[in-house]
Sequence to fold (547 residues):
Amino acid sequence: MNKQTMSKPIIEIQDISKEFGSGPNKVEALTNVDLKVDSGEFISLIGPSGCGKSTLLRVIGDLISPTTGSAQVKEKSVAQARTDRDYGIVFQAPVLFEWRNVRRNIELPLQVMGVPKSEWTERVDAQLELVGLQDFDSHYPWQLSGGMQQRVAIARALVFRPSILLMDEPFGALDEMTREYMNLELLNIYTRTDVTIIFVTHSIPEAVFLSTRVAVMSKRPGTISHVVPIELPHPRSFDTRETSQYFELVTEVREALREH
Amino acid sequence: MGNIQFPARKQTNSTSQLNAKKANLASRAWKLMRKRSEFVLLPMFLILVLGLWYLIIEIKDLPQFILPPPESVWKKLIQVIEDGSLKINVGFTMKAAGYGFAAAFGFAGVVGYILGKSPLMEKFLSPYLVAAQTVPLIAIAPLLVVWLGFGIASKIFIAFVIGFFPMLVNVIVGIRLVNEDQRELMRSYSASWWQLFSKLEFPSALPVLLGGLKIGITMAITGALVGEYVGARYGLGSMIIHAKETFRTSEVFVIIFTLVSINVILYALASMVEAILLSGRKREESV
Fold:
């Protein structure tokens, strides 16, 4: 399945740089970053620790502003896109509100964004079904496993139908088995919606398995050094991870990372 | 021989049954004790205290005005309930403490929120707040009574000041402890100030806030008492002073027990409110 369209890119990053601090403590987190993302793509940002991949994600989500350069989403500023609620965000930690049960956690963005209350139940039910947590809507976060909590976080990020899903190492804290299962779940969600995903990860196999393109970043100052297109056919499954094409792509990304 | 043995064996059988029954009863009592220890330990403690009380009077042969026997304290309690003096004075103290507590709660909430949100403001104001806290309130209480009068105003003020600081600290801590990722999430939703406060900051700080509330209530009552000690016509504090000066020691005991009861009841109420407001959260969270 190919969701890419030939229209204008949904995300356009031009010559972004970001510095933290000043004087002797100045840290150059990003420099000369260019990135175009088409609607419906799944882009992974991969690179060594401290290469600025989370910073780039936060620039796109307008959670921090770049020092120089321009970032546009749907041909408007990222600030405008945030105000228009174009982003769903999933962090490494689930960041659930521990005083709300699963249903009320997923309702949170609807509540904040003023979606009519009559739509909540239906929308939340649809998300619960999408992430497979129908039977857990009245559970509290502390009653769920880490993987389930992260699925609630994904449901919460998608419930207001954002056009872009920003994910910052969402499965980094999960064990390998759960992680592979969650990868499959995420792909399933991705194919069932028309959301564009920007996905920060440390894991080469994860990036290759999930993405339509992998953007490899180099360390200090962080920039995108290679972009590897992943032309693995959809739908992908556990078997995909055993094909020679998959191994070749993993090798290609690994070599791109090693060049720095 | 056989005839003698038979009833003897029967008897041992029934004693062992009795023993088993006893053991069963003991294990049930032990279970109850572990599950609801307060039901067992509290009466035992009270009996112990009463016993000691009588014992001291017996051994030292103390006069009534130093240590009255429990029954004269009981008689006094009935008397002050019947003549209405206890009710009036409890009412006065509770009113002063209540207003003082409400003011402290509101003021600490607003100031604590601002200081919690703005480290700059806290840096600017905290020296003054710390300095204000080091002023011994008991030392300036007479001055406050001179300024604010013999009436309830001075008591409310002292209750307010004494309850303010512990609550302020809790509000600041509560606001500071709000998870940074949760804030970022709300920011990504373009949440308004009010939404940030009502959906995240307030519920997140609630356990710490309720902890401060529990301390604040008791502190406010202490504050009202301090004001009444210094000079007042009504209130449990002035009642204690009068009783002491006229050697009505049993009345002093009545007031002390009344104050302990009030504090225990208020604390229990606050804990109940806490349990209701924090239902669903993980237990360890409540302070």
Notes: Chain B has a mean pLDDT of 84.
